Amino acid sequence: MSIIVKIDEAKFPNLSRGKFEDRKYEIKGGIIGQRVEIKPRGKRSKKAKLLNVIERSNIEKGLPCPHFEKCGGCTYQTLKYEDELNYKKELIEKLFVENGIERELEIIPSPVHKFYRNKMEYTFGDEYKDGPLALGLHVKNRFHEIVNTTECNIVDSDFNKIRSQVRNYFEKIGEEHYNRKTHEGFLRHLLIRKATKTGEIMILLATSTQSELNKDEFIKFLLGLDLEGKIVSIFHVKNDSLSDAIVPEEINLIYGKDHIEEEVLGLKFKISPFSFFQTNTRSAEVLYTMAREKIDAKDKLVFDLYSGTGTITQILAESAKKVIGVEIVEEAVEAARENAVLNKIDNVEFIAEDVLKVLDDLDKNPDLIVLDPPREGINPKAIEKIIDFSPEKFLYISCNPVTLVRDLKTFGNRGYRVEEIEIVDQFPKTSHVECIALIQKM
């Protein structure tokens, strides 16, 4: 049985609450002020599924993209950008206050809030059972249905064209998508990456082994597309895994080079198919500029833990005595080493290892430690060892304020205080942000 509630409370990142009779329900999605139809998860459960928005909130003054009602990709398409920033800011301030950090925060807008994404993973499927071939994003709350995102307004314009033409190409030749229930079919995923500064484009097609890709024809078709950027890299991944993800069981470079090249703050970076790189290049430059300005790395030894492809490592290396980057993903570390050579930076060292495991071997005394952990934050065992290094300052960059505030409590218990903290809107139209915190020894 469904019920109708008015959302009167929201919680970061994307949870809202509404009351029906004497019970408050927690809902994924929703915006304060909306009247929504929800379905409780069970008779005694306080959690509910959002079914429909009956009445919009008075802060919803934006024009959403045509896919918003179906697509599960964005959260705040109905808000004007200024209102979106304020809404996110209020939710994060509330989260911080609830965790003992009371201060007014500044949210730094993205230089671009439309057509900004430099990477997308699309899924082949159908928009409804036995419907025509679709290629796009999952329909909201429906795992087995895909919406053709023809006019997505957060991706680079070349992505919309490539996605549409690739769908048409395979529909024309009669190839079928991989069915995630029966595990039959050929077409699985399409990954597109584009370097914002250089315009270089990488395309990766993931299929099962249940048919054969005519590589020459596919390459010819792709290179014939009229794009603003230039396709310089095409991969074919064969994947028979049951997981609904791009699992590179067999990866083949079928055209061009094995990377695209991006530029950030004057440095060059090679980006391979699976290497981590910020999805909003122009906002990432804002983030990294702030990181560089918040800490004086001149002539200092810096640890960059969870260093990814070494972007921050190399930016700080321009003034630091030495920067040591630690990253568990070996491919990212190899890319980081190549990027350092490309940029002629020789005062960096990259270690391919789990941060927790390598800490005991880092017997030097760092002057600064930069932390940029994954969404789940810092491993509770690792954070104590990290603080044991006892540097004067930490710089913590977080893509998840929920785990950030958890970790900041640990720093507080160990004699550190939060000197500065700001929000960077790295992901417009979604519920996600980046936070940057300067942590100082008391």
Shape: globular
How many β-strands, per DSSP? 22
Number of helices: 9
Largest sheet: 8 strands, mixed
Distance N terminus to C terminus? 55 Å
Strand order of the largest sheet: 6-21-22-20-19-16-17-18
**Low-pLDDT ranges:** none
Q: Report the helical percentage.
A: 10-25%
Q: Quick check: average pLDDT?
A: 94
What's the alpha carbon Rg, rounded to whole Å? 23 Å
Proportion of residues in β-strands: 25-35%
Assembly form of the protein: single chain
Structural class: alpha/beta
Provide a concise account of the structure shown.
The chain has 442 residues and is an alpha/beta fold.
Task: Walk me through the structure.
- With 442 residues, this protein is an alpha/beta fold.
- It contains 9 helices and 22 strands.
- The chain has helices spanning 81-98, 157-173, 215-223, 281-294, 311-317, 330-342, 355-358, 380-388, 401-413, and strands at 3-11, 15-20, 23-28, 35-40, 47-55, 107-108, 119-126, 133-139, 142-147, 187-194, 200-207, 230-238, 250-256, 260-264, 267-271, 301-305, 322-327, 348-352, 368-371, 393-398, 416-424, 434-441.
- It has an 8-stranded mixed β-sheet, with helices on both faces. Strands 9-8-7-10-11-12-13 form a 7-stranded mixed β-sheet.
- The longest helix is centred in the first third of the chain and has 18 residues, at 81-98.
- It is globular and about 65 Å long.
- It starts with a strand and ends with a strand.
- The mean pLDDT is 94.
Secondary-structure topology with pairs:
Layout: E1 3-11, E2 15-20, E3 23-28, E4 35-40, E5 47-55, H1 81-98, E6 107-108, E7 119-126, E8 133-139, E9 142-147, H2 157-173, E10 187-194, E11 200-207, H3 215-223, E12 230-238, E13 250-256, E14 260-264, E15 267-271, H4 281-294, E16 301-305, H5 311-317, E17 322-327, H6 330-342, E18 348-352, H7 355-358, E19 368-371, H8 380-388, E20 393-398, H9 401-413, E21 416-424, E22 434-441
Parallel strand pairs: 3-5, 6-21, 11-12, 16-17, 16-19, 17-18, 19-20
Antiparallel strand pairs: 1-2, 1-4, 2-3, 4-5, 7-8, 7-10, 8-9, 10-11, 12-13, 14-15, 20-22, 21-22
